[in-house]
Amino acid sequence: MMATDYDDLKALNMVFSRPVHYPQHEFILDYCDCNGILLIPEVPAWQLTAEQLSKEQMRELEKQQLGEMIVANFNHASVWAWSVGNEYQSNTRAGNEFTREMVAFVKSLDPTRPVGFASHRLASDPESDATAVTDFVMMNQYLGTWHGLKTDLDRALDDIHAAWPDKVVIISEFGFEPRWNRWGPPTSELDPSRYYFIPEGVPSDSKKADEQRRMVIAEQMEIFRRKPFVAAAIFWTYQDYRTPSGFIMGVVNAERHRRGSWVLLREEFAPILIESVTFSPARGDSRSAAVTLRTRGPVEADMPAYTLRGYSLHWAVTSPESETVFSGGQVALPTLEPGSGWSGQVEWTVPQAEYVFTVSIVRPTGFTVIERSYDSKGE
């Protein structure tokens, strides 16, 4: 089950994640070591109050859990950083003291990795937040729903950068829960230019609800890409999960059936794009197509943008239902830096039947990044 989920996450082009609010099974870290996913493991210090954060018993428990997590996972190559908690009252005196103490404790055990925590209090007055004592920013943000107006995102990110211009910013959660306003304000009072929401009577697991989720992904990724200091964005969440709240937040449902947002998120997280496929006229029984690729980048202006090594272009000519493969092949791609391009040509023998031409880009680990299919007319 874990392998199936993580295979699908790799198909989503996930190369970086914060794997929820508690340490993961060793299988997960082994998988991420082997398949190229960087992680920020975290202990379950979740939504603690200032009173809880100030208690010596809570602090000792936190140190015990941090120590156990670090000792168990220290040698995993996939562990990029450590997180000391999630969405606690970090803009209080107790929150600042707790964070400073835990960051120092983690560094006493592992001085080699960055340390942070996921804050949901950065949309306004970031200077008061305990993020100040961490190595980087992790921002949980649901602007357009729980955390305020969607039009505030651009300004909020600029305020964070102004507060800590030397810190990289990671969007540690963003996403959409269709009934986020069940505790208010009333849906009838929501303005679509300011909030993401669904009308009353629309089911939370419907295609109509997922349209709003896709809007969140597309609009907010565009804003993240405009900010050179934003290095990564982690979508919340992969699958619908069982909680008393009944939240519906996944790009797949609990049975792992994909929603339309799965397809969009895969494209948004793809580090390389198929810019064009141009078909030549058939010459006898031979035909060719010119393929042009573009990697995302440069790093300062796009995301995700990273150097691609060992990638390949795969192509296939099949029957429309893919039951019959007429021909196919692959082309090794050179090392591609962010913001670079590649063009090449593939040639095939035209089948006597209707066919589909599919081109895909494949990682060295065998996972497909992106693909496009065309009919025999090149459409």
Layout of helices and strands:
Layout: H1 2-11, E1 16-17, H2 26-35, E2 38-39, H3 50-53, H4 56-73, E3 82-86, H5 93-109, E4 115-119, E5 137-140, H6 153-163, E6 169-174, H7 207-225, E7 230-235, H8 260-268, E8 272-279, E9 286-295, E10 312-318, E11 325-332, E12 341-349, E13 356-362, E14 368-375
Parallel strand pairs: 1-2, 3-4, 4-5, 5-6, 6-7
Antiparallel strand pairs: 8-9, 9-12, 10-11, 10-13, 13-14
Helix pairs in contact: 1-2, 4-5, 7-8
Q: What's the number of helices?
A: 8
Our Rg estimate from Cα atoms comes to: 23 Å
* Helicity, as a percent range: 25-40%
Annotated CATH architecture of the largest domain? Alpha-Beta Barrel
Give the low-confidence spans: none
Please outline the major beta sheet: 5 strands, parallel
Oligomer: single chain
What's the CATH topology name of the largest domain? TIM Barrel
- Content of β-strand: 15-25%
SSE series: HEHEHHEHEEHEHEHEEEEEEE
Q: Please give the number of β-strands.
A: 14
CATH class of the largest domain: Alpha Beta
- The CATH homologous superfamily of the largest domain is named Glycosidases
The shape, in one word, is globular
Mean pLDDT: 96
Model description:
With 379 residues, the chain is an alpha/beta fold. The chain has two domains: 2-268, Alpha-Beta Barrel (TIM Barrel); 272-375, Immunoglobulins (Immunoglobulin-like, Sandwich), CATH 2.60.40.10. It is 26% helix and 23% strand. It has helices spanning 2-11, 26-35, 50-53, 56-73, 93-109, 153-163, 207-225, 260-268, and strands at residues 16-17, 38-39, 82-86, 115-119, 137-140, 169-174, 230-235, 272-279, 286-295, 312-318, 325-332, 341-349, 356-362, 368-375. The relative contact order is 0.09. The mean pLDDT is 96.
